[in-house]
Specification:
Oligomer: homodimer
Largest sheet of chain A: 7 strands, mixed
Distance between the termini of chain A: 58 Å
Number of strands of chain A: 10
Radius of gyration of chain A: 20 Å
Largest interface: A-B, 39 and 38 residues
Structural class of chain A: alpha+beta
Shape of chain A: elongated
Helix content of chain A: 10-25%
DNA sequence: AGAATAGTGTCTCTAAGACAGTATGAT
DNA sequence: ATCATACTGTCTTAGAGACACTATTCT
C-alpha cells in the first residue's frame, strides 16, 4: 500500500499538563523552549511535550508517559487525556495537532523543589486557569482546558486522592480538595462522603501531633478514581 | 524553519460517531470502505471519517464538521470530542492517529431512512456498545468509548434534548433519555428535574392526540447542554 | 362511560449544609 | 487547664424513588 494520502500529514505532538500541589498551591510543571534560531518561541516557557516518536512510542499514551518520565522520573501517575487540538496556525512551522494529557503527581513524589533555581524547568502556581509565565504556542488555552477538566471532575470524583502521599488523614485529603477547587468544603459532609464511598483503607496507625491524633488512610486502588453520584453543592 | 522532526509524522484522521434515535433505538451512521485492492478493510463497514485535509480544514473540529456535512448534509449538530487514539498498528498502512467526535442528530433531521437500501451508508442500531456489523480498524473500540461517554453524560446533562425535534413534550423527552440509557426513569423525578433546571421554554401550544393534550416545549439554547448536580439514581 | 395519556400529591429516603458539641492528644 | 485539631450529633433542606391519584382530551 502506497501513499494513502494526497496531502501532507500534520505534525503530531503530545503535551502533558503535569500537576501537583506544592506549598498549598496547585502548580504546573513548565519547561523552557530551546533557544535556537529556527526554534519557535525560543526561550519561552511551555508545557512539557513534543513530537510523537513513531519509532519509540507504541501509542499516544505511551508517548505521554515517556515525556512525563523524562521530565520527572515518575512512571505511573494518574494520567488522563484531556483532548486533542489541531490547526494550521497553532505552530508557526505549519499545520499541527497536539494530544493533551494531564498527570497528577503525589505531593511526596515531586522531583523538583518548588520555585527552584533550575533555568529550564520549574513549577508554577496556577492562578484561576493561568500561570504567571507567558506560555508558548496555544499552551495557555491547553492549560485552561486541563484545569477546567480537573476542577470539574474533582466535584464528583476522588481525583485529589492521587495528589496525596501514600498515607494521609481525612483532614489532609479535604485540604487537597479545597486547594484544587479553590473553595472550602463542609467537614461533616466531606467525611461522610469519603468514608461511605469505601475507597479509603484505614490503617492501624495514627498521625501524631500536638493535638488529638488522626486516623491514617491509604487508597485501596491507586489506579482508578471513584465517582460520586452528586457534585459538591455550593 | 526546516524539518523540525527527524521522524515521519503519523497519519492524522478524524472519525465521527454520528448518533440519532430512530424507531425507538439509538443508531449510529456507518459507511462502507472503498473496495480497491490497496485499501485497508475493503468493503467493510466503518465510522465515517478520513484524513485531515490540511488544505481545507482550519482545525480538527472543522474537519469533523466537514465530514458530518458530507455524509448527512447537517452543519450544526451537537458535536463533542471524545478523544484521540494513536498507535503503530491500528491502521495497516502505518502509525496513525485519529481524533474522534460524536454528533447528535435531531430525530427529524435524519437524512436517510433507517435500514434503507443504500449499499454504502446505513444506520445501525447500537446494542450495548456494539453494532451488528464488523467494523474496520479499531472502530469497535472507538464506538464503545463514544457510547460510554454519551451514556455517562446523559446521567447528569441535558444532552438527549439535542436528539429531539424543535418542539417536543416532556414525555417525549423522557422516552429519549430512556432509549439512550437503556432503562426506565421515574416520571415525577424526571419532570421536576427538567422543569426546575429552566432550560426548556414552554410554548403556547399543546400537542393534541386521542387523549389529554401535552404541553410543548423547545430548547432555550440549542448549542449548550446544561449540567445537573446529581446523576439519576438507580 | 371508557381508554389513554398528561400531570400532580405526598410519603419516604439519602446525602448535603450548617454548626454546635465532644474527644484526645501535647504543653 | 488550655490549646489545637479530630471527630460526632443532629436539625434542616433538596431532590430522587415510589406510586397512587387527579385531569383532560378523544371515541
Amino acid at each position: 500500500m502506497v501513499n494513502p494520502n494526497p496531502f501532507p500529514y500534520p505534525m503530531s505532538m503530545v503535551d502533558v499538563v503535569i500537576l501537583s500541589v506544592l506549598e498549598g498551591e496547585l502548580q504546573v510543571l513548565l519547561v523552557r523552549r530551546p533557544a535556537g534560531e529556527r526554534e519557535p518561541f525560543p526561550g519561552a516557557w511551555a508545557l512539557p511535550g513534543g513530537f510523537v516518536d513513531t519509532a519509540k512510542d507504541q501509542s499516544l499514551e505511551h508517548c505521554a508517559l515517556r515525556k512525563l518520565k523524562e521530565k520527572t522520573g515518575i512512571s505511573s501517575p494518574y494520567l488522563e487525556q484531556v483532548g486533542s487540538w489541531g490547526g494550521a496556525h497553532r505552530d508557526p512551522r505549519g499545520w499541527s495537532t497536539t494530544h493533551v494529557y494531564f498527570a497528577l503527581l503525589p505531593i511526596d513524589a515531586s522531583p523538583l523543589q518548588p520555585g527552584g533555581n533550575a533555568t529550564d524547568i520549574r513549577w508554577s502556581a496556577v492562578n484561576g486557569e493561568k500561570v504567571r509565565e507567558k506560555l508558548a504556542f496555544d499552551h495557555p488555552m491547553l492549560l485552561k482546558h486541563a484545569i477546567q477538566r480537573l476542577r470539574a471532575k474533582v466535584e464528583y470524583t476522588s481525583l485529589p486522592a492521587f495528589l496525596m502521599p501514600r498515607e494521609f488523614t481525612l483532614t489532609e485529603l479535604q485540604r487537597m480538595y479545597e486547594v484544587v477547587l479553590g473553595r472550602e468544603l463542609e467537614k461533616k459532609a466531606f467525611r461522610t462522603r469519603m468514608l461511605s464511598a469505601g475507597f479509603l483503607e484505614p490503617l492501624s496507625k495514627q498521625k501524631e501531633g500536638s493535638n488529638r491524633p488522626a486516623q491514617l488512610f491509604r487508597l485501596r486502588d491507586r489506579s482508578n478514581p471513584i465517582f460520586f453520584a452528586r457534585t459538591f453543592g455550593r
